[in-house]
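Human:
Take a look at this sequence-structure pair and walk me through the tokens.
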Amino acid sequence: MKLTKILLAVLLLALLVLPAILPAAMVNAAIQMLIAALFACAFNLLCGQGGMLSFGHAAYFGVGSFATLHAMSALNGQGLLPTPLLPLIGAMGGFICGLCAGWFATKRAGVYFSMITLALAELLHSLAPHLNTLFGGEAGISSMRAPAWGLDFGDATQVYYLTLGWVVLSIALLYAFTLTPMGRLTFALRENGHRLQFLGYNVHRLRVLVFALSAMFAGIAGGLQALNLESANYVLFDMRFSAEVVLNTYIGGVNVFLGPVLGAALMTFFGNAASDLTQSWLLYQGLLFVLVMMFMPSGLAGLVLCWSAQIRRRGWLAIIPAAFSALLGAGVLSLAVVFLIETLQRVFSQDYQALLMTDQAWPAISLFGREWLPGALLTWATPLLLGVAGLLVLKLARHQWLRLLDDEPVVNAAALRPRVEGEQP
């Protein structure tokens, strides 16, 4: 626990000094990472802690964004709600919509609940372009950040610190909620709702309240998005954003409180970095999600906790060989997959097919700083050999890891029992 507090303090200090060492473009990316982290943490209150998988949570993110923009235009940063407090309007919008939608959706559980949330979100996505007063039609609405508290919020650095403050406060409140009696009931709701009902609790009311609280914090994230971009349109209600928060949360780990924060931050950074490098970055995101669900169902945070527990038990030196083999094998296998996907993407692209129609020869493609001929054996043998090598190294890492688990000290129950006088050892 002490080490965790130290790591969190170091992380917070790093976030405070981040704008001083990053260019303006990267500061904007950091803001998006913070907003995505809060959105995923809010979603995890419903999904990971409450056991209710929603496929339409982007609706409350979008409602919070639009509500904040309307408040920005109406209040102009004056009165009781200056610019830094405008995300409260997003929280109110998300909470009210969450109460209404949650009352209907939580009438059912399991897959039926998920389908109802998806239907409600798609209904809002279909209606939004036609509701010009609320959502501005297809063009959306926009506003401007007004000066407040001696700040003009004209540059990305000030918006970053405003976003950081709201994200840290919101995540702290979400964690505090897990320590309350209602937070404990939320975990019990995930494990066995029928038992709670048998004990006399109103399960439907509890589900509605958890749904509304999750939507409220999603609305805060949407309000921060509105302050950052100063505009929004109905695309925010698209299914893609709802799917994105599900992927981020599960990749990070739904059973660890800060797991969704880790997953959302990493995947947002990956999206910003990879989208400029390749057209297949969404495919890589999907592959990563599938691999995490197959081999790391507890998510990246669960993997980190597992390795840290082994380090505390055995020390760094015992873990290094297995960790190095796993990282090396994963890196080599990833290189093989990227090589194959990028080669196929270039070969089947429209530009390459146009060149192929004018010339019978297969033109070379540029990849990893050199030219590769699609008709050459080396071009296809390279990813194959890299893939085989990566799998072999991963198999070695698996054997090393199993050997570590086999070396677990076994406690003799007889040795722990108090010895009776006169008993032979």
Residues 315-406 form one domain. The longest helix spans residues 316-347. The two ends are 39 Å apart (CA to CA).
